[in-house]
Design brief:
alpha+beta; about 750 residues; eight-stranded mixed sheet; protease
Amino acid sequence: MEKALCTLAAVLFLGVFLHRAEAKINDATTESYSIFNYTTASSTVNWTEAVTDGATPTTAATKLFSSTEKQLDTTNTSQDREEINNKKEEDRDEVNKKKDKDEDNRKTEDEKTQPDCPPLGLESLNVDDSQIQASSYQRSGLGPHRGRLNIQSGIEDGDLYDGAWCAEFKDKHQWLEVDAIHLTLFTGVILQGRNSIWSWDWVETYKVQLSNDSVSWKTCMNGTQEAIFEGNQNPETPVLGLLPVPTVARFIRINPQTWYFNGTVCLRAEILGCRVPDPDDIYSSAPEPGSKDALDFRHHNYKEMRKLMKSVTEECPDITRVYTIGKSYTGLKLYVMEISDNPGKHELGEPEFRYVAGMHGNEALGRELVLNLMQYMCKEYKKGNQRIVRLVTETRIHLLPSMNPDGYEVAYEKGSELAGWAEGRYSFEGIDLNHNFPDLNNIMWDAQETAADPSKVSNHYIPIPEYYTKEDAMVAPETRAVISWMQDIPFVLSANLHGGELVVTYPFDCTRDWAPQENTPTADDAFFRWLATVYASTNLVMVDPDRRICHYEDFQGHNNIINGGAWHTVPGSMNDFSYLHTNCFEVTVELSCDKFPHVSELPIEWENNKESLLVYMEQVHRGIKGVVKDKITKQGIADAVIKVEDHDHDIRSAADGDYWRLLNPGEYKVVVWAEGYFPSMRRCHVGMEPNPTICDFTLTKTPIQRLKEIRAKGGKVPQDLQLRLRALRLRKLRASTKAINRRRESQQLQRRRARSSGGWRI
């Protein structure tokens, strides 16, 4: 009740303020405004007391404002596990439509009385380092600029980039100050301890102070007492403290009162606040960044995601199809949307592309970007956008927005700022899905080291090891579902979308000999670097030369791309498995410093990534493609091996004989062979344009293969085949005789040299 009264009072005050601000502009008068009082010709209002319209907190004594698991994005979190096209589900949705509508109306009414201000942007870096000050700090690596929610420390003790702001002194006079630049209705503070593997530090209680000029400060009050807010009990769990009375100011300070007994004054923080219109602010009229695309910009839980995908298929039924590839541990379905001019069917020569998001459940931005992409492509296709029409007609696109729906639901329940760095990252069983694929790298490298001729070791389609296929293997059902999906569809190109950094990584992710960090390139390193560069160079944040690093690594020196192993080794990654077990090239995109951006950030993030998402898909049409056919039957040959000279990584043709080989511009010698056929060689030219070069191959069966097939059918061997077999035997005989004669001549020459050398020494 106390919270509701304070909230209602804040809303009433804000309305009064806006009304008076408007009058102020009209009268062209100059009046003072601050958090302490608001002066007009008729009255003086004390903000911290009279804003409640006579109501004050009921508790006179000092109150400890404790952790609140308030979800900042208020949405229904119930789960619906039925098929999108299931009739029973359709009926239930229809029956509940009125109920949902009533619930939405109640939600709207609640939003009118409950402030839901977004974060200022300490975590997302919208708040510049220059806006954060502190009373003191131990060293530069623990300066005020490091006091950002979820910031991660370097791996060295005493690193230049440490995991919090830490005051130099352990007393109650220390503070961390944030300048919001504009007048802001402050509503709350989120606190976290220090991120470090070397020490434990956090603030247990704190005060909040507000100011308009950073000189005169007023402490937040709980009735007649200074409000004491509850902080942390461990380094990582974010704790939300709501101000008893939302208050307008420009500056805010966090003033620690107590801290972990064996630690020091260290914290990471986020501030919640709504910008207030100010007639005296010359920058107040600047347009807020956003997006012109009319998309559903919000965080979607499982039920809402399913509804959105369904709505897209209803809007664009001719080019979309939703299907499932399996279920999570708790039974949530892994939904995929296909976008194609012929949904549900692989078309000869048309490459298959996929985006995978939500492998780590709390990295929510990728999930929303994929859902945005579905909506965008549907709308733009209907408008006749030629770029989108070309993508849809020439590519079969598969979009998996949530590979780890169980983890996402956990993070979603907490909310965008309160989920922390790891809440919801893992599957329900506690498995990190990006370490859960078969480690084929070391199988290949071990085979190369022990083989007499390493060049003969298979460099593609490496089979899954037997231990991994056992029922008791620690393999998540989500991972098994994705592997089966990858085996069923001949994907050519993919990207999996993550969060927490701003960089694009490419294989190999796993290093040789288990080195923690080591550049470990593939045979297609040049093309992988191109793929990563395509995304990074079109991402509006990555290309900003003035952007701040996310945590402790500066990837701008690498043009915002890096080999996965050179960053940190990841055995069992999806990227490496995709490359070594299938034909598909895949990279990882770290989309944002903030894993779970607030809903207000989603339109901006869509604009940051829209061009990157589109141009990356278009790269599936680079290189060469064609069909491998039987010369006599004209039928496609499946599993034909396509070998490119100087590229020690082969690919195979799909079931219909079509293939796609991603390559940079250049001239290539390409050899194709299949079991029972003579090899065929062609030279193929790849140009600069993003259009594939057509390189078809026609293979001729060997006489032995033809003989096997005829005998299997019980037929008579044709005379021409008998002659060819006889000629083949003669060629083999001559070749073997020639080899024997050469070996005999070489041995005789060695004996003569030995005798000659021995005679000279005598």
